[in-house]
């Protein structure tokens, strides 16, 4: 088995020495060969800008964490999927937040998290409200945090209406990543999503409102691209409203130089109090989401690992450690100590070399498998690119497509509740997990008990912990080769 650095061992680790000890297990020769470079389809300069950003790079989200601070609550438009609810800790969706912060509070919180979460690489401002409209607070927060932690990436998300006039300042502040939420390029469709906007000191409604919003979004996108800023487009998929329209949106934003397009399912529930929730507008099924993504051409420029984070999320994508860092737990005075984050980057640099070698070894094994229909494999992971999570603890599964041409990340399936409940398994949850994994042929995890394993078997799924701690590509490729009658090869790297 390959040597590995357990993320568990890093979780409670705040000193560089302790993290370096986690690396003490000798690695194999692979650590001195191969390249730690990123995806081969990206220029090195671009990869360098995204390799630590968990949203802009799927690979990076195995290693790095983001945090959001809710400092800019004012908004200049109304979306039918938002009610800017202030305090609802039980929900997990964009725009929902338990605590609004002043810029000074945000600085204290970010420094505290940076000292305790070495994976932290990005600070984002992502609602509720609009970061460009409530600009003074956004700018003050970024200035304070950049002064305290010079290497942190600054990231903002906006509806785009107030964006064009902010592009110069965004560029001057070295904000390298901006997300614009663009749900339409046709104002008639927009009128079904946005009841009003506030622009040039007055309120606009109907098609005119959406026409203005659309023109401002395109202008903002073009200006950001002209400045060399990496722009991600978020689109909310609203069945019956913009589902058939999103391929046109995709073509329009890519033609203007957007870096990435993230198509997210509408989250709609009457309990959220949104217009869509109260009027019965449903969200898409996973199959509908996948169909729209495929209609947009699929490929590397579509984000498939978004977790639709809360506006005050802290931690790796898919986890939220926000409750550990509420303001009542943040010291009045804080000082940034870079040692933990620096040491963690050493860990990642080494792991990336090994991971890259493992990927290439996995691809070589797949070369030897005879042509097969691609299969979907679910992986329980807590980061580091490894099969390293107990089945009972998983609240989400990473889905990979295995075929003779490679192992490809295909998305994330979330489950409402993890199986293990304080030592007991919950059968009702198990049924829902099996249902959520529809279409998957095998589940790879670090450990699984006999009862859930039997239930999976009865449902016709393979479930195994035989690849615990292997890199995901190694595990999936080896399982695929073995399942198709190939001899298992040593793939440790
Ligand atoms: Fe936050 Fe957004 Fe920046 Fe990421 S989230 S502001 S780009 S640092 Fe990421 Fe969360 Fe999806 Fe957003 S997973 S909701 S895409
Ligand atoms: Fe809510 Fe954001 Fe839409 Fe404003 S732009 S209404 S904060 S979702």
From TrEMBL:
Organism, scientific name: Rhodoplanes serenus
Protein name per UniProt: FeMo cofactor biosynthesis protein NifB
Pfam family for this entry, one: Radical_SAM
Record bears the keyword Mitochondrion: no
Pathway(s): Cofactor biosynthesis; Fe-Mo cofactor biosynthesis
A GO MF label: 4 iron, 4 sulfur cluster binding
This protein's record includes keyword Iron-sulfur: yes
Lineage: Bacteria, Pseudomonadati, Pseudomonadota, Alphaproteobacteria, Hyphomicrobiales
Cofactors named for this entry: [4Fe-4S] cluster
